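::Encoded backbone::
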Amino acid sequence: MLLLMVSTYALASEAGHGDTDIVQRTVNFLLFAGLIWYLVAEPAKNYFASRSNEIADELNKVQEKLKESVELKKEALAKISEAEKFAEELAAASKKENKILNDNIMSQCDSDLEVIAKQHETKKDFETRNMVVEVVEEVISETLNQSSEIFDREAMANVILKKVA
């Protein structure tokens, strides 16, 4: 402040000498610019420094997010490859299980067919025996009805033996 007051007093002059006052104006401008620099320089420097720090912090945050996303991408790719391997293993296991189940079902069907065939043969034999018994009973009853008058017992036994044979 003292410099400002001294410079104003020292450089103040009257305009009538025929000289221009360029020197005084230049000194006044330099004093004004210095004063403005003194008042504005520190806040401007602080503002630009804080702005630079904010930009650097934002850049660091973006770089951290980028690193995180790269890591997440790597993890996702690893999970995808694991899932593909699991799918291949599952498909192979499913095919094996399908073959085993198919073989079991086919063997069960073969067993069931054999059982059904045996049951059919048994039933056929049973029905054949029943039919033979019915025919024999029918022949015997007819023979007995007819033979009681015509044949004797011995002849009837021979007829029965011939029919059964």
Summary: The two ends are 155 Å apart (CA to CA). Helices lie at 2-11, 22-150, 153-164.
